[in-house]
Structures are given as C-alpha cells and as structure tokens.
Design goal:
Blueprint lengths: L3 E5 L2 E5 L5 H7 L23 E4 L4 E3 L10 E3 L3 H16 L15 H8 L24 E3 L9 H9 L6 E3 L6 E3 L16 H5 L5 E3 L3 H8 L5 E6 L20 H11 L3 E4 L1 H21 L5 E2 L4 H10 L13 H12 L5 E7 L3 H7 L4 E2 L2 E2 L3 E4 H10 L21 H4 L6 H11 L4 H12 L5 E8 L2 E9 L1 H13 L6 E5 L16 H17 L10 H10 L3 H5 L11
Parallel strand pairs: 1-5, 10-11, 10-13, 12-19, 13-16, 18-19
Antiparallel strand pairs: 1-2, 3-4, 3-5, 6-9, 7-8, 14-15, 17-18
Helix pairs in contact: 8-10, 8-14, 14-15
Length: about 575
C-alpha cells in the first residue's frame, strides 16, 4: 500500500492503513489523549478528549477522523487545550475521586490526564457520580459504578471481542450507568470472569479482585508452609512493570523475588503444563481410536470452560477432562506435602483462575487444591510493596524435585502453545527439523482463528486454534453448521492467549507480540523440548500419583456427563 503523509503539529507523519488520525499520531510518537479508544474495538467517540484543530480552525475527534494525504491538524492549540480541560472537569464531576485509596491510583488514565492538563480542582460543584451499589459478586473482578465515566470500553470489549454482553448502558442523562441489565450482579450474568473489561477500563470502575492482604497474612504466619506456583506467561508479563523490555522473560528474578517475599517453596507451572500434555494427548488419541465424537476441545482455560457451560452446554462432553496445569500442580503439592500445613498459592495471568480455584471440583481428598490465586498484576504490587529492586535481582531456580520442565510447557503462555505442545508429544520427535516443521505448520501467531493440518504417522489431523471467546463462537458455529470439520480445537478466552490475560499488566498489541517473542525465546533456551523428556514426570507418576493419575489430574464438570 502506497505511503501517504499528513502534518500533525508541524511534523510530517507518514501513514498507510491506519484507520484514523489518532492512530497516525501515536504511530509517529504524538500522544493524543483518549479515554474511550482501543485499537481492538470499534470507534465510539464518546469522551471527546482526542479533539484536534484542523486547518479551518474547527475541532474534530481524532479517533473518528479519517487521515488523508496532505491533511494538517494541531493537537495542542489554545482552543484544543481549553476543550480538554473542560471535558476533564466534567468527567471529574461524574467520577468519585478518592485517588489515595483507589485500586488504580497511579495507573488511572483520568488521573494521568488531569495531571497532564493541570486540572487540579473540579470546576462544577455538583457531584453526579453513580450511587449504584458496589458489585463484588464475582470472585474475579470488582465493579464500582461510582468511578465509571461511561467510556464504553468494557461494554464493547465484552460484546465485540468476547461475544458475551454481560454489561451494557442503561438509563439516560445523569442517571446513565454501565452494568448488567435489570439490576443484576455480575455473577448472575454470562460473565466468565476473563477480566478483559478490567484490562481496558481507564479508571477504577472495573478492577481485578485483588487479594494481596490474604497473601501477606500467610507469608507472616510461621505455622504455614507457603508453596507457590507461577504460570508460563507470568514471566513475560512482568518486565515492563519493572523497567525492562517487553520481550524479556524474568523467570530467574521471579523465583528470587518470591523467596525474598518469604515463600517457602517455589515451583514452575511449566512442569504441569508438560503433565497436562501427557494426559490430554493420551485422552485425545484414545478418542480418535475409539471413534468418539470430535473435535476434542482443550480444557486448561477456566474462562472458556465457563463459556461452554453457559453458552454451549451441548459441547461439554467434547471438552477434555484433563485438569488445567494449575489444578494439576495443586494436586501434586497436596501429595508432596501430605502431612504439612501447606498454603497453596498460584500466580496466574488470568482473573478467571480465581473462580476456578473455588470450584467444588477442585477439591481432592477433602482438601482445596488451590487456596489462593494471585494475578501477575498482584504479584508486581507485592514486590513493589516489599521494596524489592526486581530489575537488579540475581536469578535462581525453582525447587526440586518438581523443578524440571521442557519448552513444550513454556509455550502454553501464548495462543496455539497448547496445540503445538500436543503435536510435539504426538510426533515424539525433538529433532530441530521436526520442531521447525511444527512451528511453521500454522500454529504460531496472534491471529484470532488459525486452522491447519498435520500428519502424525497414520493420523491426518485437522486442527483449529481460537483466542477470544467471540472467535471461539465463530469457529463453533462453522463446526455445528457442517461448514468446517476439526479433530482438535484449542480455545483461550483472552485475546492472544495468556500473554494477554485479564490479570496481566495491560499491554498494546505490539507489546503482546513482544511477550510472544519472549515465550519462544524461553522455549529455545530449554534443552528439553517435548514433555516425555521431562525426568520429573517419572517421579510424579511413580511416587506422587501411584495409580491415581486420572482421579487426581482430571476434572469432571457436571456437564461432562458420566464419569470415566
């Protein structure tokens, strides 16, 4: 596509296929403020902060202006600045500003812009913020209507990307609010707790249900043995928070930080990602052999599991019974420390894991497998609160005998990673040529839907990978109509997979791509590439599971039907 040029603040700015002036400006290093814009969502144009002045002296919203060759705009004329200050003052009058105690203080975009444009006190005396009740019904996220500025980002994310529509606008004028319909709480809707609404909320109106005080309490309890596992994508979601490049995996520093916090035992969930692949691959091959109904769907994403239960219950028997890596490690921890007072903590990129941990199915031998789930975001806050200089920490290794993992476990953190690991397991060949062939088969990349074919011996398999529940619904519709056929389908609820989880520090598409690079760099650095090479698995099957693998590692949700 031919490159064009426009002039922004006297700077010549080239562009090609950017959909608006706002994107052109940001691509060229000019940050036009906006509270209602997201590169992955439809254009709403509601906040009016992105107004710019065109060559005729008129104000236009940069998010809805189509760029054209030779166009001239200015982003900080006196007229523009006055408009922004007025808009911010109006927004502040409809937002309960308690910044010192707000969960998002320091990260709130409204707060940032108020500082940027020197809006230090409200212009309008009347406070019009919502008096609707605080919604803490979800174990995953908290909704505070009094801090909502009606930007609509959460509404569009839930409807356009996730195809759920758990929240929407209701009422009019000063009484307008965003929330579930008919006065319901989030727990009463189709919400799956994915946290993508919290990821795009510019204020503190929707936040992660942070449980940091519970963690501090356990860390300071001398009677508790605190055992922590951390998921594959956590290591690539922390770098930006501590001033490091987004494509940096911080595994060794993460382990050291957990020990500095007072954690007694540190494990890497990559190990049970390997274990998940062993169990899930065996289940899949058995389904193929027995002629069971296909496709088989993956089961490690709790947001996806809830979505199947609520929106596609007929498909639940086709979902793998293999537990998530978090669940499996929880089971191993209970077996490893049977007679000890253990507090089992999982650090996850995913807010929906908080719901998963509380499910009745995640109880074995009368004990909860996971006592507490903290997100990547919460771990970063813990580290900062402890005054730890994370960037300059030395590196260390997770604890034995459950410390080994392979590259197949690492790649779980990105969309397509589970599938690639399954293919590696089925082909049972870790040669560089075979790994390269697998990587290039179509499984990698951040596209919303990927479909490809692979051959494994006599098996010829058609596979699909979807990330984002809206994409999963599109794929399911094609399968159920007979338009498409697949043997195996991987679904991750969050866009781009776990690297874009609702519990990760928010990131642009470009930064998520950098996180993906970090995942594959970690894979390349692993000497072991396929799960069956992991020496810890023999110890697990022989010493911890002792013939109870299916009982301890598989989860039968109510809609799965008859227990195997």
């Amino acid at each position: 596509m031919a490159e064009k040029k426009m002039i922004i603040d006297g700077v010549e700015c080239p562009f090609t296929d950017e959909r608006n002036v706002l994107e052109v400006a940001r691509k060229n290093g000019i940050d036009i403020p906006s509270l209602c814009y997201c590169e992955n969502l439809s254009i709403y144009g509601g906040c009016r902060l992105c107004l710019v002045e065109n060559e005729r002296g008129a104000l236009d919203a940069a998010c809805s202006m189509q760029p054209r060759n030779g166009m001239i705009v200015n982003t900080h004329t006196a007229k523009v600045l006055e408009s922004r200050r007025t808009t911010l003052q109006l927004l502040m009058s409809s937002h309960r500003a308690e910044c010192l105690t707000c969960e998002e203080s320091g990260r709130c975009k409204l707060q940032e812009y108020a500082h940027r444009y020197n809006v230090v006190e409200p212009r309008f005396s009347e406070n019009t913020y919502s008096r609707e009740r605080l919604d803490v019904s979800s174990p995953c996220i908290t909704r505070d209507p009094s801090k909502c500025i009606l930007c609509g980002l959460c509404v569009r994310m839930c409807a356009e990307v996730q195809n759920i529509g758990a929240i929407d606008f209701s009422k009019r004028g000063k009484k307008a609010i965003v929330g579930p319909g008919f006065g319901k709480m989030l727990i009463e809707t189709g919400c799956v707790g994915c946290g993508q609404c919290a990821a795009v909320c510019p204020t503190g109106a929707i936040t992660i249900n942070r449980q940091i005080p519970e963690m501090w309490k356990m860390l300071n309890d001398p009677k508790k043995r605190v055992v922590v596992q951390y998921a594959p994508s956590v290591r690539v979601g922390m770098a930006e928070e501590f001033g490091m490049p987004a494509d940096t995996a911080v595994t060794g520093k993460l382990v050291t930080a957990l020990r500095r916090l007072g954690v007694d035992v540190v494990y890497d969930t990559n190990l049970t990602a390997d274990l998940t692949i062993m169990e899930e691959s065996a289940e899949f091959l058995e389904k193929v052999k027995s002629g069971a109904k296909l496709p088989m769907f993956t089961s490690c994403c709790p947001g996806w599991i809830q979505h199947v239960e609520k929106a596609h219950p007929n498909l639940m028997p086709q979902v793998s019974t293999a537990g998530s890596p978090m669940e499996m490690f929880g089971a191993l921890i209970r077996q490893q420390f049977k007679d000890e007072d253990v507090y089992s903590v999982a650090i996850m990129p995913c807010t929906a894991k908080k719901f998963e941990a509380k499910r009745p199915e995640l109880e074995k031998d009368g004990k909860r497998l996971i006592d507490l789930v903290l997100t990547t975001d919460e771990l970063c806050r813990l580290i900062k609160a402890a005054g730890i200089d994370f960037k300059n920490l030395p590196e260390s290794e997770p604890d034995d005998p459950l410390g080994d993992y392979t590259g197949a476990g690492v790649i779980f953190g990105v969309t397509g990673g589970v599938t690639e690991a399954v293919i590696r397991r089925v082909l049972d060949d870790a040669s560089p040529d075979t790994l390269k062939t697998i990587a290039e088969c179509g499984v990698r990349g951040l596209e919303g839907i990927k479909a490809f074919e692979v051959s494994a011996g006599d098996l010829h398999l058609r596979i699909a990978v979807a990330n984002g529940l809206g994409n999963a619904d599109k794929l399911i519709a094609k399968v159920e109509s007979g338009e498409e056929y697949f043997d195996f389908i991987e679904v991750m609820a969050c866009p781009n997979g776990c690297i874009g989880g609702g519990g990760q520090p928010p990131a642009s598409n470009a930064r998520k791509a950098e996180r993906m690079k970090a995942i594959f760099k970690e894979d390349e650095a692993c000497e072991l590439k396929i799960p069956q090479q992991n020496p810890a698995l023999e110890y697990i099957y022989n010493n911890l599971l002792q013939g109870r693998a299916h009982e301890l590692l598989h989860i039968h949700y109510p809609l799965h039907g008859h227990h195997e």
